[in-house]
Amino acid sequence: MTAPTEVLFDAPGPKARRNNVILSIVSALVLAGLIAFAIWKFADAGQLEAGKWYPFTFAQIQLVLLKGMLATLKVAVVASLLALVVGVVFALLRLSSRRIISLPGTIVLEFFRGVPVLLLIFAMFLIFGNTIGPFWSVVIGLTLYNGMVLAEIIRAGILAVPKGQKEAAMAIGMRPGQVMSTVLMPQALRAMMPTIIAQIVVLLKDSALGFIVTYQDLLYQVNLIGREYNNLLPTFLVGAVLFIIINMIVAGIARWLEKHLQRKATAHVDAEGLSTATVT
Amino acid sequence: MDLPELLRLFFSGMWGTLELFFVALIGSFVLGTILAGMRVSPTPVLRIAASTYINVVRNTPLTLVMFFCAFGLPFLDIRFGASSSFNSFIYASIALTAYTACFVAETLKSGIATIPVGQAEAARAVGLTFGQTLGEVILPQAFRTVIPPLGSVIIAMLKNTSIASAFNNRELISAMRNAIELRGDLVIPILFGTALGYLLLALILGRVFDYLERKLVILR
Question: Does residue B211 sit within a domain?
């Protein structure tokens, strides 16, 4: 953000600074105008009256919204854990040296990665919906798609571990399974942690899809409350804010981890006395 | 309901998906470029506005954005045409554009960061204004360097068009649901057919972006 973008324009002189101020004011006015228009539209539809917001003071409504939020989070957590397992399994399948194992793995992976998550959720719901219910339809749909994406991420991580690690582990007599589970996989997971978490944010966002197969998640409750009290937009805004806050927290963790892990990785390389130039 | 009729339903669904895809493609490229330009502009207000918009919308599920457009906009009495199917299409396009534009803008911004500093310095040295520097020197190069990541953003958008089916838009998934209602005995073949339809479209898009990459990418 710093150097490359600031080089796009000169340090402002007196004239540029004046223009900047004018432009700032104009764009601020335009933005304020847009916001005012939105508020006017809201007010016009009668969505800003205190009465429309009043239901949120009821403990029951708060409880229902909270329950919806928890339902969404439950889907996201279960699906994330399962997707990690599926991801590790498929990464190993694809890395297998036997073609008879790696080829079917690749075909299954490319299939589930290439179709929309919604289609997978629908497929689960339509074929097995009666026996497993909407919760597991959503979880399995999300797991299949995100598991395959995670498999690709983990595979890339394993391939990126320096070759010497594997050779050294094998040289001291570890079996291939041990090499993978105690040497390669931990390093790959750590190096890929920011990307993995970014994918989990994607999963979290996709968990909002549950509402389409009548899973009673946050959006479902928002819809219900909105229709009940005729205050769709206030309810929607409350729901959206809840969603955005959760996503921003998880995304923040990803960024923090990225910084944290990066620092460790470079220190590690320095300690070995290797002068690998950091690629940026 | 026999096979030719099912196929016709399927192709009309495919056409709906493509329509939504192309409208959102153009919209998100335009809006994404504007947002990227705003993010690197010398005016702080524009920078803050663009980054706030990107951060908020990027962290909102597309389902929520669609929900707002499809159910919220009619509530606010914002309508675009007489027929409700056309309205649904416009709402879905707006949602998909607003959502995808954030990712296009982010990708472009990272592309701008990879352009050698000398390019912008040279542009400024010959007296180009900020708009000229960005529009004629930086952005054309940035677009060419980010073709591969832009490709994955666009393929993700293709898959995201499916969410519009839940909000009354006619496309492949809604055609699939219609077909399943009509022929309950063919659930699994119909699901597979739909999946193959999406895979085919994604494969074609992937090829197009590979081709563009080979043709346009700048080797440094």
Answer: no
Looking at the 3D structure of chain B, how many domains does it have? 1
Q: pLDDT digits over B33-65, tens only?
A: 999 999 988 888 888 999 999 988 888 889 888
Domain membership of residue B133 (yes or no) is yes
CB pairs under 8 A between A and B: 156
**Contact by Cβ (8 Å): A182, A247:** no
ipTM for this model? 0.85
Cβ neighbors of A135 (< 8 A, separation 6 or more) are A74, A75, A210, A215
B60 found inside a domain: yes
Tell me the CATH number of domain A51-264, given options 3.40.50.510, 1.10.1200.10, 1.10.3720.10, 3.40.50.720: 1.10.3720.10
Residue with tokens 């009666």: A130
A125-139, A156-170, B131-145: which has the minimum mean pLDDT?
A: A125-139
CATH of the domain at B103: 1.10.3720.10
pLDDT of res. A171:
93
Q: Is B55 on the interface with A (CB under 8 A)?
A: yes
Burial label for A131, CB within 10 Å (0-12, 13-18, 19+), is exposed
Min Cα–Cα distance to chain B from A227, Å? 11
**Per-residue pLDDT tens over the stretch B57-115:** 888 889 888 888 888 888 777 777 778 888 888 999 999 999 999 999 999 999 998 88
Check if the beta carbon of residue A77 is closer than 8 Å to that of residue A139. no
Q: Does B118 touch chain A (CB under 8 A)?
A: no
